[in-house]
Model the fold of this input.
Amino acid sequence: MVRHALLQLKPRKGQIRRNLDHLQQALLALRDEGVDVAVTPEAYPTGYFLQGGVRELALEAAELEDRLGGWHAEHYQKPLDLVIGFYERDGGSYYNTAAYLELGGRGLVHRHRKIFLPTYGVFDEERFLDRGHELASFDTRFGRAAILICEDFWHTVTASIAALQGAEIVYVPSASPARGFHDRTPANVERWETLARAVSGEHGLYVALASLVGSEAGKLMSGGSLLAGPEGEVLARAPEFEEAVLLADVDTERIPPVRYDNPMLADLKAGLPLIFPELRRIVEEL
Amino acid sequence: MKIVRGTPNHEVLDLDYRLTASALERFVREELNGRGYEKAVVAVSGGVDSAVTLALAARALGPENVHALSLPHRDSSPESSAHARLVTDRFGVALETVDITPMVEGYAEQTPDITPRRKGNVMARARMIVVFDKSEQYHALPLGTGNKTERLFGYFTWHADDSPPVNPLGDLYKTQVWGLAEYLEVPDEIVHKAPTADLEPGQTDEADLGVRYRRADVILEHYLKGYPDEYIVGLGYTPEEVALVKRRVNQTHYKRHLPAVAIVSSTAINEFYLRPLDFRLED
Done:
């Protein structure tokens, strides 16, 4: 069992020091809970909507690792893994990134740079950010994982690739402004749950969604973080709009029997050579 | 063989008002707190928009943290003041009355040719002078009450009704404000009366606008989402109604923006230099 804490936190816009302190307080409050992996939402240290402020507030991955690593060393005897979404500066490029940090261990294990930058409606990411170009699963202390950031996960082909690369859990930091108030739950929250259940059920893996909360100048980040299990079931669900910590266990030993009963991933692998030429043709015609 | 019919798929204006109220209350609380405020000022006209705003503020902040203002002019309908009192009594908020007649008439006396329309605008701007001064006095942030329909129509006094920094109703059509009002138990006589700016005797919004709100809102929602005119007409609206709604929107875009600024650099504010309004760097 791998104890996860999905941290549905509300940052103050641009207040990195304060927000990291808030994160650390939240983690310290969980010290007796045996948390192995904690996950923050997308762009947590700064808030999501920054426009050109990305240039002033983006962090280098090493800088973030140093700050959190130093804090961890002061307070923990054992390693703690942290998936943290942040705006990353790398030379003259800026990315919407999430890092997998093994604090008190290997440090920066993996970094995923968001590939699908929403630039429509209320979103304007590609005006201010560069796209990531890699999607890779990676090994953690607890198994094989992948990270997809927000819209990355809305294209289910990305999770399929992660699953084909062996991912047993997909971490999804997100920042999702509430929209669609026609039903009891905001439509975007419903959509997230539908996606998480479909992806986890199709591939027999866990999906850990950590979703931002707080009003960013009227854009109400919706929360609704959740953990979905390999049979497509929601194992834990956070409330909408308010700060919450979702504590839930991931049992990767459940994955082989579930995949045996529902061998969609194996079937996908077997069928890939049949559909790959079509994919290649589509790409070549772009 | 059993026949199962699908449900029609179309744009809907109806909202879940419990969810909407809860989200708007959170919006009020968080936007105020983010600016260092715990209290709000709401100018209560006796109409449904300010009644709903007051109700949301009272639920979000506690009635004791809401300052309601009634700001009548001697030409205002007495019913407006009575309804303002009805609303504040319903939501347990104390009501302060400031008569704006001397402010408005002080100017009007020097302007003998002032028209009722111009005087109405002076009233609206005088009200904002009071609202912002009370904001300073009570360290309470003014809440705007303008709804999406009137914002889209430009049916408000520029730099008056649109000036409060936080507005919970600005993305709700009038039809939706009525729905929310019923959920929040705004008194019936306020929900069901003819909407009026009460800036000129006998004025009503729908007579001014030339279209009923409930019809305009459906047209607006489809127009904003890019449906062609023929599609909207196909829903049962006249070409004249569609044209009127589109004209009102397209004659008033300037009222929904900051003033035009001549750009001579590559750091022009809000054109090149872009920061969200809640952006703040740490000290």
